[in-house]
Predict the structure.
Amino acid sequence: MTPRRSGRKAEGIAFVGTLGALSAVTATAIDISIPAHGEVAAEFGLPASAGAALVTAFMLAYGPGQLVWGMLADRFGRRTVMFVSLAGFLVASAVCATTESFAALLIARAVQGMMAGGAPVAARAVARDMGGGLKTANLLAVMTIILGLAPLLAPLVGSGLLVLFDWRSVFWFLLVFGVAAAAATCAFIPETQDPAHRQALSLSRAARNIRFLLGTHDFVFGSALGATSFAGYAAFLAVGAAMAQERFGVSPEGFGPLFAIAAAAFVLGSILVRRMIPRFGLAAALRTGVAIAVAASVPLLITVHMDLGLVAFWAILCLYVSSFGLLMPGSIAQALEPAGAMAGFGASVFGVFTALGGALGAHVSSLPLFETASDGLVWTMGEAGFACLAIHLLACATRPQA
């Protein structure tokens, strides 16, 4: 399927690259701001920990906002949602960059989070519009490779901006990034939704769509696998820096290169699934991702009772992160396979489940029942790996016969 509009075709490097950039809007907006948290808090006379509220405000609006964007993408088309959400993202970025009040900054950051959810949802819907099956899975794998560059590069860009300018430059950069994404969308992304498949906006239809999706084997187990895998990765995001400093004496500055190594492992996992899907199929790719997650979980849990060096420990952790990079595109493709005409809504519901899984993983890993940040990380990540195995085995046992 190669939808056309105004001479644009849904294929080629520019098309795929733009979809990848759109899917990375959220990750870029979060990760680039992390180095600026302390400086933001200092300017407003707040404790350093207050800077973390920039992530909290963003995520609180981003999670539920995906449902709205999914419904709008199915009603008005993918491109409309991309442009509207990016326009709102630009306005919110400008307000963040110019505000003189911390409260106003948090409100603008929440709006930015709400608007940032539209582009990734619409991009995943476009991938499903390509026909489903292996073609969609292959496209999602390439998009995930590009997405993986965000946590690899965004913190470095943020740190570089802080060396040259102040924290406001981070949000000006996001504005420029949003403009570039909108321009690329205009140039390279056609409308892929069939006008005959437009969905009316109504709560009753949304309820019916949710019931339908939750009644399909592929959506339920694809979403469960994606959310569970992300729970383990979110534990790393939540307490990874504290664990590295506490267990191995790594400074906050030294954690940056370690984080980049883990992000590279995510990209490698995405490259692996990109190569596997055309040759062996989606099911084999998912089996491989689950196997790698379990292979990392076993030694991770063992490290609770042994003194392992930083290199060995980080290698095991990166093994799990690579499994997340492999499982994420595959689980999205599996979940969206039955979505069909409601691909936008399906992508948004998948996004909400994944966000909930991430929130659960981050919360569990930081619970006071763990004596150290290291314990919280390895137990949460290790259990997530085995939970992925349980979900996969249950999915295989309950799959309807063709």
